[in-house]
Design goal:
With 187 residues, the protein is mainly alpha-helical. The chain is 82% helix and 0% strand. It contains 9 helices and no strands. α2 packs across α3 and α6 crosses α8. It is globular, with a radius of gyration of 19 Å. About 4% of the residues have low confidence. One of its GO terms (molecular function) is DNA binding. This is RNA polymerase sigma factor (Sigma-70 family).
Length: 187
């Protein structure tokens, strides 16, 4: 059994030993992220717990596989939830209890949808050629075209721009041709 499957199964079966491992290995990184982004330790613990529950419910409803490491997957889920929390707190200064409950349900659904979109993007990126993966990773890190020329050995910035354009186009095609894309599009 892979580590990813081990963690997913542990969440479903409430395996406290494996879940404790997750807390020990992943929670410190989540805390660091939340603290660096206007949060408190309790916020990090809440987001972490919410992400674990969200992943477990989603996996129980529709089993999926994690292509990256489970810790990276969990970190992304937590990061997305925390960003939603920050957006929510900046939008709502005074709240009616009913409005808050409706908003939270909607936010949870949006966070889940965002996570599914991220997974679709990651899956499409994984299907890309190695050269496209390399250049797109640099592009997404906002590395300059001149630096891409140096890092990847292209002859000019024009060649780097053309390669980024072609790889982005191919990535978009991979996303749009995915069965998951059509399901997400309908939501």
């Amino acid at each position: 059994m892979t580590d990813n499957l081990k963690y997913l199964e542990a969440l479903i079966n409430s395996d406290s030993k494996v879940i404790s491992e997750l807390y020990l290995e992943s929670l410190p990184k989540i805390k660091k992220f939340v603290l660096q982004n206007k949060g408190a330790p309790q916020d990090a613990e809440d987001v972490f717990q919410k992400a674990l529950i969200q992943i477990a419910v989603r996996y129980k409803k529709n089993p999926f596989s994690v292509t990256s490491s489970f810790h990276a997957f969990l970190f992304t889920a937590c990061k997305n939830l925390w960003r939603r929390e920050l957006n929510k707190s900046s939008r709502w200064v005074t709240k009616d209890i009913l409005e808050e409950q409706l908003y939270e349900k909607n936010e949870d659904a949006l966070a889940l949808l965002e996570q599914e979109r991220w997974e679709l993007f990651q899956a499409a990126l994984d299907l890309s050629s190695d050269s496209c993966k390399s250049i797109l990773k640099l592009f997404f890190k906002k590395i300059s075209y001149s630096q891409m020329v140096v890092d990847l050995g292209y002859s000019s910035e024009t060649v780097a721009r053309q390669r980024v354009f072609k790889c982005k186009k191919k990535l978009i095609e991979l996303v749009k041709n995915s069965s998951s894309f059509n399901a997400l599009k309908e939501l």
